[in-house]
């Protein structure tokens, strides 16, 4: 791995900038002195106020965030990022954005997230994850963006028993529409790298958690339920394990792929990005109980449609190419999340 003039400021597009991972990536890039242009459609899949609070941390006030500025009227700030409320699938605004800013690299983290929600609203996944991603690829193609780093997911491995999951495994049997759209993204990226000669790097995220996390994720749901004395829903009667990965470790991997080059000269790359230390669900809940000093009421439930029994990342390839090294133990990460949660929601003061 070598520096890609990392000391020089780059102009970087971060899609999904008000989302959990996009917020943290934007914050880290700004701290390094890069110019960040962020977009997000601020949909109501979960609490929009949390998204607006993340943007406020990045220097974007609420009134600025929610207005529908067009690309030409968006303001430029010397000390903070530029933000535009925008859908990925907007075939007029997104190309205009790419032409205006001439991005050095693009980080596509915007997507309709969630496995279970894909059973209720499949059209949202087609719009954002398929049409939207195609729009990003087309914009990269026509404005000669040299590198696109994009979010894939561990969910594409389905119910594979071959653990740890490796990038070379067959992933032709997704068990949710969400997973299918992520597999489609990888195939689309391959076609565009082959046809148009720009680098695409897909990152298969493994159960990301931490401060400012998504309210639909286990860490958030469990903490909220335990604090409020409500039952914690334990699916498959607790017989589940997840490769829980702390947000700081995820960000370090994303930054490496965005800002560095590797000895791997292939234009098309795929990497697992996880902690590589799966944890049983009941152990995870126990660690949250310890951090909160409160016992959970457990409601044992059957397996949910679209869910998988286990995830476990082999991250050797990302270590080899970009020196990726997760550092955060689950108990440490849970304590950090709980501290943030209590502070954000003003609990226990």
From TrEMBL:
<keyword id="KW-0520">NAD</keyword>
<dbReference type="InterPro" id="IPR001509">
    <property type="entry name" value="Epimerase_deHydtase"/>
</dbReference>
<dbReference type="Pfam" id="PF01370">
    <property type="entry name" value="Epimerase"/>
</dbReference>
<feature type="domain" description="NAD-dependent epimerase/dehydratase">
    <location>
        <begin position="12"/>
        <end position="274"/>
    </location>
</feature>
<dbReference type="InterPro" id="IPR036291">
    <property type="entry name" value="NAD(P)-bd_dom_sf"/>
</dbReference>
<protein>
    <submittedName>
        <fullName>UDP-glucuronate 4-epimerase</fullName>
    </submittedName>
</protein>
């Amino acid at each position: 791995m070598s520096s890609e003039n990392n000391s020089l400021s780059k102009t970087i597009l971060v899609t999904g900038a008000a989302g959990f991972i996009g917020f943290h990536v934007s914050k880290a890039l700004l701290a390094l002195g890069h110019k960040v242009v962020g977009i997000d459609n601020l949909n109501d899949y979960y609490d929009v106020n949390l998204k607006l609070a993340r943007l406020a941390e990045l220097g974007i006030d609420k009134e600025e965030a929610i207005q529908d500025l067009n690309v030409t009227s968006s303001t430029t700030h010397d000390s903070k990022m530029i933000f535009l409320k925008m859908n990925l699938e907007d075939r007029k605004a997104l190309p205009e954005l790419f032409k205006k800013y001439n991005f050095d690299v693009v980080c596509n983290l915007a997507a309709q997230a969630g496995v279970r929600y894909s059973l209720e609203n499949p059209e949202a996944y087609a719009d954002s994850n398929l049409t939207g991603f195609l729009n990003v690829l087309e914009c990269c193609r026509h404005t000669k963006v040299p590198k696109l780093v994009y979010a894939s997911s561990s969910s594409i491995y389905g119910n594979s028993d071959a653990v740890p999951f490796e990038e070379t495994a067959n992933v032709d049997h997704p068990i949710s529409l969400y997973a299918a759209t992520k597999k489609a993204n990888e195939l689309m990226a391959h076609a565009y790298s082959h046809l148009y000669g720009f680098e695409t790097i897909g990152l298969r995220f493994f159960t990301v958690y931490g401060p400012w996390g998504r309210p639909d994720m286990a860490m958030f749901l469990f903490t909220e339920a335990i604090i409020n004395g409500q039952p914690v829903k334990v699916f498959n009667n607790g017989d589940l394990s997840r490769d829980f990965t702390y947000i700081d470790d995820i960000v370090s991997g994303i930054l490496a792929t965005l800002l560095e080059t590797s000895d791997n000269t292939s234009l098309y790359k795929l990497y697992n990005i996880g902690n590589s230390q799966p944890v049983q669900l009941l152990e995870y809940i126990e660690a949250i109980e310890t951090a909160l000093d409160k016992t959970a009421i457990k409601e044992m439930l059957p397996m949910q449609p679209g869910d998988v029994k286990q995830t476990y990342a082999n991250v050797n390839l990302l270590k080899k190419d970009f020196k990726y090294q997760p550092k955060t133990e689950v108990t440490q990460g849970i304590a950090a999340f709980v501290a943030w949660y209590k502070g954000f929601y003003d609990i226990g003061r």
